[in-house]
Design a protein that fits this description.
Radius of gyration: 19 Å
Strand content: 5-15%
Number of helices: 9
Mean pLDDT: 92
Shape: globular
């Protein structure tokens, strides 16, 4: 809950940045190991992670701009320089970047997407711990025993007990990583990995949004921006799973 860990000269080490870095490094480590175990090319994995980070960053910032469009029109420089991001924008940007890379390299997008989504969930788990240190993405006020109180946050209201949505999200992401890892490492369900990520992550995020207390994340009607986007990704996940099941059934019938 203290984001400023220590200072070396003019450089301040922030807990948020450290957790993001740890998440990225773990994504590289796990992605490479999974690639080697399943006969995929680790070099493509490394490049894809870098591409997804860059396009995900752009997608996250662009989506944030749309959530504060009036503020952007009034002061574009301030909005672009603000610490504002939308995770779903990052996910969609990363998917688009991966698809473009796979098209250029003439490799299977779905094979590498299935491989990388466990690492995505793992990185998100560490990222949410970073959110906890910074105090962003905070929860609603609570009187429950599990509430947490910030005292030095630049984002969350200080000295008020809040629902620890960041830690709940982090725990959910780590559990999701374990589930996706098991799905991917089982050859019979490997092609379902992306579909399960889209479905399970989006469903979990839809629920956690009801506990969030930061109203600046944007709303579309009664739903937050993330809930609205999440509905489409839940549908996309279901479609992917149905299609994978159909393809698997067709292959079995062809063999018979």
């Amino acid at each position: 809950m203290y984001n400023d860990w220590f200072t070396i000269g003019p450089l301040t080490i922030h807990g948020y940045g450290v957790m993001i870095a740890v998440g990225i490094l773990m994504a590289f480590f796990v992605g490479e190991r999974m690639a080697k175990k399943t006969g995929m090319d680790p070099n493509h994995v490394d490049t894809l992670i870098i591409v997804c980070l860059l396009t995900g960053y752009l997608g996250s910032k662009i989506t944030y701009v749309f959530t504060v469009w009036d503020q952007f029109l009034a002061n574009p420089k301030a909005v672009l320089g603000a610490d504002g991001w939308v995770v779903y924008g990052g996910i969609l940007g990363g998917i688009l970047g991966a698809w473009i890379y796979c098209r250029i390299k003439k490799i299977s997008f779905f094979h590498y997407a299935n491989l990388l989504f466990p690492s995505v969930a793992l990185a998100q788990g560490f990222g949410r711990i970073g959110c906890f240190f910074a105090g962003c993405c905070y929860g609603k006020e609570t009187h429950g025993a599990l509430g947490i109180t910030f005292t030095h946050s630049d984002y969350a209201p200080n000295n008020v007990k809040l629902i620890p949505t960041q830690l709940i999200s982090s725990a959910g992401d780590f559990i999701l990583f374990y589930i996706l890892y098991k799905i991917y490492m089982d050859e019979s369900t490997r092609d379902e990995t992306m579909g399960w990520y889209l479905l399970l992550y989006s469903a979990g995020r839809f629920v956690i949004e009801f506990l969030r207390g930061d109203s600046a994340r944007g709303f579309i009607g009664a739903l937050s921006t993330s809930q609205f986007i999440g509905l489409f990704l839940i549908a996309a996940g279901i479609i992917v799973l149905i299609q994978v099941k159909k393809n698997g059934k067709a292959k079995k019938e062809a063999v018979l």
